Amino acid sequence: MKRITKVSLLLSLVLGLYFPIVFAQVSMNNEMFDLAKLKSGVKNKRISSTDPTGGNRDHLEPFQPGEKRTIAEIKGAGVINHIWITIAPPPNELSRNDIIIRMYWDGKDYPSVESPIGPFFGQGWDERYNYASLPLSAGPENGTGMSSYFTMPYTEGARIEIENQTDKAINAFYFYVDYLEMDKLPKDMGRFHAWYNHNLTEALPEGETEWGLTGAQHPNTTGERNYVFIETKGKGHFVGINYYVHCPTPMWYGEGDDMWFIDGETNPSLIGTGTEDFFNTSWCPKESFSHPYFGYPRVNNDVGWLGRTHAYRFFITDPIFFEKSIKGTIEHGSNNNLTLDLATVAYWYQDLAAPLPAAPTKAQRAPKPFINHMDMHRWRDAWRKSKGNKATLWGNE
């Protein structure tokens, strides 16, 4: 009888451990599991730049400088689930930093997506390079094919607008906008938002004191003067960021911590440990890396960390939730002690299509020039003179 009791207990333990695992697997909710579910009440639709004559001129006619054009206008309820775009001429001739994409939901007269088209799809400044993440990609050929797989719901229509703020014509604009037409959206579908911000950040009055090389460092507990990459009111969740930094010094740019103010907080409830840590990397990286959720598709190839770097992170399984408001920020250097040319595109969902903060102007977002060897020689000349211009000065006296 005692033996039967032990066996029964062991069997109960095994079953107790096994069945919850099986149940979890059967009930799991992910893309591959959901892909097998049959759907009802949806119809695939597409708006594209296809040649209406059936010929092969499958692009829009030239956009002149200053021209705005609506490329997609959709009625009723549905979900945009794929966008693809390519443009001619390529970025070395036509900057995608000055071609603006805007998206409007539910008949609103203000956009809930507004960004230069390059940075939105993961192409910083006026450059081109391959980029691959789960929701966004660019390339091949060398970053020219730009795609989005973000889910973009609406109940009362959607509109996508392109504005040419460059000084040249867009000779050819190719695109797909794929969407699902529905009678009614599933419950609790948020509205997709994306906002581009850009700042030339300011060093401290005492200078760029990073790593204590030129002066004492002080703590930052309030987040004052942090760079802001998202600020909105409503209920929703933050899902990702593309981060573009141009550093004018060989000093490491990434000691800055991310700080989050959720639902009206005056002190941040989420605080990070460094910029590269926020992007799931470590130890001041300078190598290209791509993961579905995070990576460095473009790194500087200059001295130290001088030059341009693009990092990204998508919060696919770990969104940052807010009930009333959110303000996401990051320091530019420890205690905001560095001058950096910073630009970001933040991506999030919220309950209603909300207006965005003011967009940076063309002049404000203009890429800063590269620092080169001649500039460094001028720095050396100024340093030599500060040291009395002795003929044998080496450089680290």
Automatic annotation (TrEMBL):
Species for this entry: Bacteroides oleiciplenus YIT 12058
Name used for this protein in its record: DUF2961 domain-containing protein
Pfam families assigned: DUF2961 (PF11175)
Superkingdom of source: Bacteria
InterPro entries: DUF2961
